[in-house]
Specification:
Strand order of the largest sheet: 1-2
Radius of gyration: 21 Å
Structural class: alpha/beta
Oligomer: single chain
Strand content: 15-25%
Largest sheet: 2 strands, antiparallel
Helix content: 10-25%
Number of strands: 6
């Protein structure tokens, strides 16, 4: 099926269906994602009192990635111990 002509009279290519775009790799500032499926940050409560991720939190994100998600994002991370808003928050210091 040919796309309708543009104002100049030449055919305009039809865009790819949105579902097909979902599975096309995406380049972001030197990082190439295998597709465009991204898991947004959600609270999984998987850190100890020192802010270290527990095996269950690591396994959760590994399972999400193994299922085909290109990028999974952790949530509620602090960059210093005094920046934590609750005791078992992820500490990325």
């Amino acid at each position: 099926e040919q796309a309708p002509p543009s104002a100049a009279g030449s055919p305009v290519p039809s865009p790819a269906p949105p579902t097909r775009l979902l599975f096309i790799p995406l380049a972001l500032r030197g990082l190439t994602l295998r597709n465009r499926v991204i898991k947004a940050a959600t609270f999984e409560a998987g850190c100890d009192a020192a802010g270290a991720p527990q095996p269950s939190l690591i396994a959760h994100h590994q399972e999400v990635a193994a299922g085909g998600t290109a990028l999974t994002v952790v949530a509620y991370a602090a960059v210093s111990p005094d920046g934590k808003s609750f005791g078992t928050q992820l500490l990325m210091a």
